[in-house]
Amino acid sequence: MAITLSGDQAIPAPPLSSRLTPAQVWGIVLLAPYLLVFLAFVVYPVGYGLWLARAPSNYVALYNDPIFARAAVNTLIFLVIGINIKMLIALFLSGFFAVQRPWIKWLSVIFILPWAVPSIPTILSVRFMLNPEWGMVNHFIFSLTGDDGPNWLNDPTVALTMAIAVHIWKSLPFWTLILITGRLAISHDLFEAAEVDGASWWQKFRYITWPSMQTLYVTCTLLSMIWTLGDFNSVYLLTGGGPADLTHVLSTLGIRYLRLDQLSLAMASIVCAMPFVLPLVYFMMKRLSR
Amino acid sequence: MKLPTLREVATEARLLLIGIPVFLWTMIPIYHMFLFAISPKEDAFSGKLWPDHPTLHNFEIVFKQQHYFLRDFYIQFWNSLVIAASVGVLTLFIATAAAFSISRLKVPGGRVVMNLALFTYFIPAAFLAVPMYRTMGNYGLLNNHWSLILAMVTIASPYAIWVLKQASDKLPVELDEAAVMDGATTLQIFRLVYLPLMMPSLVAIGTYAVLLAWNEYLYAFLLLSNDREITLPVALGNFLAADDSPWELLMTTGFIYALPPAAIYYAFRRYMVGGLTAGAVKS
């Protein structure tokens, strides 16, 4: 149904401005800046990246790269073990911080610090604490036992555990804060009634706290998993992916390929994470766009 | 005065048993940074809990730029500041306009744009960094502050739009109708009705965007490389390039770098906790 400009039978369409109310014109004008940013810095890069990652040879190369397999396993450990431990601690601490005491109020203000300060200097601070010769941790072990402490970041398992610990240190306050909000929303009458009935600590948790918080808890866990996939700093600044590239996660591995000028491999490694990421994203969008 | 019962003492003891480890866990890395900042090199490396000769000499070296790694300290601090401020202003502008358009003007397709933005919000930032790097290269923006500013605006906007849209939806629609009755134009409604009512959320979002940009390491280190163009966190990372890094100076600079965001966070804590955590997860 092409309308030719030269054709004498062409009926001129009404000008755009007469079909839209002024408010709608303004709506489009005000939405335009974000749409431009979205097209230029999300659609184009993602499309371009996927186009680069299209060749099957990339995936063969990834499959044959032992560092990729290791990074995938590390990422799973980070997400499945690390995040669940973090969220369990956050759930526990949200109960602790809900207790009414002046000193606990003060502690909760201090507790936010890791979230409020930038991660680079604090992660580097931990890195030096774990230095085998000069670090505070091994000085402390030596003064207690007279033995040299372990070479913390030189053992892949210990180094990855430390990276997870740094991640927990940084993001625990945020999730605890959110779970506290959820906990404070529970009606106090329920706890008083349970108190009268002589319910134990565990029974109160099992039959009052948990049922009203489980949706929030599961949402938080999934959201934290998605975001942790993008946690580059905890691993990169603590271990740099070492020793011998054994502590990479997918986010640091992507950047490693990028730095080695293997952009298509970097994109392919990200594409490999998509079957895991997209269902989580879909689930979260369902939750949030209600 | 009534003596506390055994049961009360036991409860307090249990609370302390949790509180003390929480305090130590939180403070040790930060205290360690502070300790290095006030220690001469020998003391810092000796593993003492308090230096024999606490000093502010490290701060003097940083402020006088008296070390190879610190020769561009002021310009890097300035870069961080300009980039964070630009990201804050641009994000506020783009997100407020978009939220007003979607929530108040009900622009056709607004819901789709909101969902696309939310989708972007859930792409892990480190994943988007890979194609973003090449894209900035294609646009010829590498080593230019605009590359980092635009990248951070891209990352900050989706969440900003989402929070502002949620806040806008709560404003009564009668306000707009009354203003239209009085003959106000769309821009007048935006300026005179909408912006003043949205102020608390705007403060929260502005702070969020500024802190996000000030704290960003990965994008800054990918997109900027020239010593006089980089931001402070990249400069901190560059300290590690040498084997005999001056860790006491690194920690001093890191301490200075960490102070502004911590101060901003605590100053705006009321807004942050209310505006952001409530929006972050809606159960």
UniProtKB/TrEMBL annotation, chain B:
* All copies of domain ABC transmembrane type-1, residue ranges: 77-268
Q: Which PROSITE patterns match?
A: ABC_TM1
Origin, by domain of life? Bacteria
- Chief localization class? membrane
Query: Which protein are we looking at?
Result: Carbohydrate ABC transporter permease
Entry GO CC: plasma membrane
GO annotation (BP), single: transmembrane transport
Q: Where in the cell is it found?
A: Cell membrane
Membrane topology designation: Multi-pass membrane protein
Q: Which UniProt keywords apply?
A: Cell membrane, Membrane, Sugar transport, Transmembrane, Transmembrane helix, Transport
Give the transmembrane region(s): 15-38, 77-100, 112-133, 145-164, 192-214, 249-268
Q: Does the keyword Translocase apply?
A: no
Protein family (similarity comment): Belongs to the binding-protein-dependent transport system permease family.
